[in-house]
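B., you asked whether I could sanity-check this one before it goes into the benchmark set. Here's the sequence:
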Amino acid sequence: MSDGFNIRNTLRSLRIGQTVTIFTTAGGTGGGGYTGTIINFSSGSISLLLSASAGPTGVTGAFGTPGAAGAFGAVVTIPINQITSITQNAL
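And here's what the prediction gave me:
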């Protein structure tokens, strides 16, 4: 029996820059969900920035604290047909 739920309806309400947790049909670590900032949508997938890369060090006039030297960012691309649920903050 279908309750009319369609993950694409939920995706339409999301915006680039929004932080979400996406759970997938994957087993293991991937099935535990991915929390990150939305950086891209396409017709078949959504990309999240899981952790930002380190900022440059020694930049004159820069504010903030740079990350660890040599650190790389992490991005995940999730096929829409593998998404089971999306958690987002209530606005």
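One thing to flag: The mean pLDDT is 76. Otherwise nothing jumped out at me.
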